[in-house]
TrEMBL record:
Topology with respect to the bilayer: Multi-pass membrane protein
Name of the protein in its database record: Sugar ABC transporter permease
Cellular location(s): Cell membrane
Species of origin: Paenibacillus baekrokdamisoli
Family: Belongs to the binding-protein-dependent transport system permease family.
The keyword Transport belongs to this UniProt entry's keyword annotation: yes
Chief localization: membrane
Xref: SUPFAM superfamilies: MetI-like (SSF161098)
GO biological processes: transmembrane transport
Length: 310
């Protein structure tokens, strides 16, 4: 009996590994239903959307929603704020997470290190609204902990909720507090995978701990760092709505420095009720993020093929 030979490489792989591909079917169905089918909502960006009429019967107005957004100066402010915040989050978060991971790894395995790991990842599981409630106790002008401390030291108090200059630093510090510990766990997992014989050979050659860190650990983590950077780059136009809105809210004194694309869309949806305009802004946000990821991935692939995501 003759066996049919499949010449196409993709079909041949599909038949050979059919059971493995079958395991992926539930995940594919889930992605199609909850990730790809909702993309039909992109049409709202080009419509004068009416919830009663629905997507298929609302009036088509073309690019008018985009023109409404880009004709003013608001889009420049919120876009620059969004990019600035996320660049600072990525840079500071990577540096601190990498530092914590190396420090804890060098300390070895003991109960103190395990306690520190648990303490570091705890903020990741605290929701931003709760953090926002606690922040009031620190930043209130009259009764805030920080201003009480400044007064006791003979220094001038800071009115945090009217002074927008201090908030970029505050937001970066809060982001570090909440995310750096969890990021350190990822780097620690990568460090554990480094061949220990390399460190032993370095010690035999007389290398110090710092030399081993800068000449073995960090270079071996290059692919991990680049991969996490590329994943973060996709959200560089994300406005961290939950964090910023929980800490700042609708405070008009602070919007010039803290307003991002997500907070602008959320506020516009509540005040104007225009689904089309808000969807147009979200589409702009998604397209730019997608282009950035594709471009950065190509650049990373040319510099180091192992660092590229695809």
């Amino acid at each position: 009996m003759k066996t049919t030979v499949i010449k196409h490489k993709g079909l041949r792989d599909l038949v050979t590994n059919r059971y493995l591909y079958a395991l992926a079917i539930p995940a594919v169905i889930f992605s199609v239903i909850f990730a790809y089918l909702p993309m039909i909502g992109v049409l709202i960006a080009f419509q004068d959307f009416n919830p009663i009429k629905g997507i298929w019967h609302s009036e088509w107005i073309g690019m008018k929603n985009f023109v409404f957004f880009f004709r003013g100066q608001d889009w420049l402010i919120i876009t620059s704020n969004t990019v600035l915040f996320n660049v600072m989050f990525i840079i500071t978060g990577t540096i601190l997470a990498l530092t914590l991971a190396i420090m804890l790894t060098e300390l070895g395995k003991n109960i103190g290190v395990r306690v520190m790991q648990s303490v570091m990842i705890l903020p990741n599981f605290i929701s931003w609204p709760i953090v926002g409630l606690f922040s009031v106790a620190f930043f209130t002008a009259d009764t805030g902990v920080i201003n009480h401390f400044l007064t006791s030291m003979g220094m001038n108090t800071i009115d945090f909720y009217t002074d927008d200059k201090v908030w970029p630093v505050i937001l970066v510090l809060f982001n570090l507090w909440k995310t750096a510990g969890f990021g350190a766990i990822v780097y620690m997992a990568a460090i554990v995978g480094i061949d220990k014989e390399m460190y032993e050979a370095a010690r035999i050659d007389g290398a110090s701990r710092f030399q081993s860190i800068f000449r073995i650990t960090i270079p071996m983590l290059k692919s991990t760092i680049v991969m996490l950077f590329l994943l973060s780059l996709g959200n560089i136009f994300g406005g961290n709505l939950d964090m910023i809105y929980s800490l700042v809210g609708d405070n008009t004194f602070l919007t010039s420095r803290t307003d991002t694309i997500d907070t602008y869309v959320f506020r516009a949806l509540r005040t104007t009720g225009s689904f089309g305009m808000t969807q147009a802004i979200a589409l702009f946000q998604s397209l730019v993020g997608f282009i950035l990821v594709i471009t950065a991935n190509k650049v990373a692939g040319k510099l180091d093929k192992e660092s590229a995501l695809f």
